[in-house]
Task: structure prediction
Amino acid sequence: MESLGIQVVYLLLLSIPVACVAWTITHEEVFREPRDYCKHQSETAATLPKRKFFYLFTCEYCFSHYVAAFFLALTRYHLLYDGWLGYLIAWFSLVFVSNLYMGAFGIVKLGVKKERVEIQHIETDVKRKNHQLTVESKGQKPAA
Result:
């Protein structure tokens, strides 16, 4: 069994692809159509199990459990203990850390989007003022 320090490094590193896959499938444009279908099914399916099944593909927290389980099976990573208990602890730890990463990424992405909107407003104001100056310099009355 590796030292605790190595296990924690693995946890921090393995959480990155878990977060990346879960975020991409539940948020990014490339998976919009299947996600929209799943969202619709999660709201309108006839049975509760079917609605819950489709909901799993629209929620990054829920979906990260399945992605983490996949990466655990792929890497055989375990935390603190050998055997099933180590896998169980690793599973929930991967979900926790990957969701911290996704939360931080969501905040950064929101900040970038806010800056883009602010830049767009500034560019629109500059274009409008330039247009007004052009109209006024030609001796025309600016439109209201």
